[in-house]
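Hi support team,

I submitted a single chain yesterday and got back a structure, but I'm not sure I'm reading the token output correctly. Could someone confirm the output below corresponds to the sequence I sent? I've pasted both exactly as they appear in my results page.

Thanks,
R.
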Amino acid sequence: MLAMNYRGPYRVRADERPMPRILHPEDAIVRVTRSCICGSDLHLYHGMVPDTRVGMTFGHEFCGTVEQVGAEVRNLNVGDHVLVPFNIACGKCHFCQQGLFGNCHESNAQATAVGGIYGYSHTAGGYDGGQAQYVRVPYADVGPMVIPDWMDPDDAVLLTDVVPTGYQAAEMGGIQPGDTVVVFGAGPVGLMAARSAWLFGASRVIVIDHVEYRLDFARVFGPAEVYNFREIDDMVVFLKKLTDSLGPDVCIDAVGGDAAGSAIQTLLGTKLKLEAGNAIALHWAINSVKKGGIVSIVGVYGPTGNIIPIGNVVNKGITIRANQASVKRLLPRLIDHIKNGHMNPKAMITHRVPLTDVADAYHIFAAKLDGCIKPVLLPNGL
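Hi R., thanks for writing in. Yes, this is the structure output for that exact sequence:
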């Protein structure tokens, strides 16, 4: 079969690989119909995530048709068209029982924090991902969900990560009616966080980025006020002035370690890798949110440390909430929102690319060329 093959930082290609096999009675094999490139895949692509091994196949956002099931799979049948959450979860452990499917204690033997994730380095279990024609899906009775007949597959594939991650960012913000919410990052997760903030009752949503075409998109899709941080001298002072000198009620970091906007953060976190990425968006969030406000983090950082203004967190009485999205827990609500027209995720898809051109797709997405918001790979054609 054809699959994306990581060859080192900034180098990926499509190669012939062995077909995945059933390794456990609870496995399924899925023939992939759509697979997205996620902003967090770019952390892998840029060589920022430890233990990303040459030869790995990325891809944690995918949907497809069940091709084969293990002897103990009861909820799926061959031929079912399913969306597959990026969390690999056993459904039985202490954390899965609390709905914390992103923190499954069984699916990732290599870490005490995050659970297993498809195609996201050996720090997340070492599973191959869905940027391939076929993929092995462990715990097949737990994660995959049969796509409703009425749902567009383009919406379905975005329900595997980007939509629930953006929604959970807003949920963790504890948004109250009338709140002002600032979202750092106008990528797909930031866009969904902005959109979701309205559903929780926000009265004002502001998006910060430096890529003009993404800000233009956020202005309509959010909809949101948008500002380019390249045109602002001091982001914290600017946001205070926008909010009656108090600061926003909620700040959402939807950027993570791949941020721009600070030379010293780029040097320490990106160039020298002395920190787990560039944390400037997190600094802006902590320092601008109002006293007693909430900072919600869904941007991805590496497992090593970052220098952040923890004294300001204490002295301002800020609540910080963060986690990987618990996709399975959120799916029923999100499906209702799509069915009722409150969300239109597929509007973010700008590029459809055959798997053979995966290297070009990564380059276009990483370099933010051609107005790219969200690229989708088509491993088995249209």
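A quick pointer for reading it: The mean pLDDT is 95. Let us know if anything else looks off.

Best,
Support desk
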